[in-house]
Amino acid sequence: MTIRSYDKNKIKKRISEYEVESRPKLFISGDSAPYYGVIKKALEDSLLYLVENPEDVMIDYDLLMNSGVHVLTELLYVTDGSVSGMKVIDLGCGSTKQSTYFSDRWLPYMSEILTRFGAIVTGIDYRPNNKASYDHQTIDLIRSDRIISGDFDLIIAKSLIDGLIGKSSNQTMEDKILEHFSGLLRSDQLTITDLDVTQYGFKHVFFREFNTLWYR
Ligand SMILES: C[S@@+](CC[C@H](N)C(=O)[O-])C[C@H]1O[C@@H](n2cnc3c(N)ncnc32)[C@H](O)[C@@H]1O
Question: Which residue has the higher pLDDT, 14 or 112?
Answer without folding.
Answer: 112
